[in-house]
Amino acid sequence: MNDCKLGAVESRFADLIWQNEPIASTALVKLAEQELSWKKSTTYTVLKRLSQRGIFQNQDGTVTSLLSREAFYAAQSEQFVEETFSGSLPAFLTAFTTRKKLSKDDLDQLQKLIDQIRR
């Protein structure tokens, strides 16, 4: 999956699928009509685009994910750090913490994560 970015509307549509999968494509059309005010053609167009990007599939009228929501957002985060900070997580954290101070709880959770990774 090369493109880990979703627009705001694509993201809402993807969340509908992740929350309801597996879902019949006809049920997805109805859900997208209710939640997004989309027509059938719009639903199928966006589904096709996201399927071509390797996120979802529509097989025999049933829509499922090829990537879990968590895996997708992990890949999106990796891509952001790579593109914006040349892949440097310390550079990202430095930039992040210049404007947002981390709480003691945040720091404890990060330390726990570091300790787990080191094992």
Automatic annotation (TrEMBL):
The keyword Zinc does not apply. It comes from the Bacteria. Keywords: DNA-binding, Transcription, Transcription regulation. InterPro entries: BlaI_family (IPR005650), WH-like_DNA-bd_sf (IPR036388), WH_DNA-bd_sf (IPR036390). It holds the Pfam family Penicillinase_R. One of its GO terms (biological process) is negative regulation of DNA-templated transcription. GO terms for molecular function: DNA binding. Belongs to the BlaI transcriptional regulatory family. This is Beta-lactamase repressor BlaI.
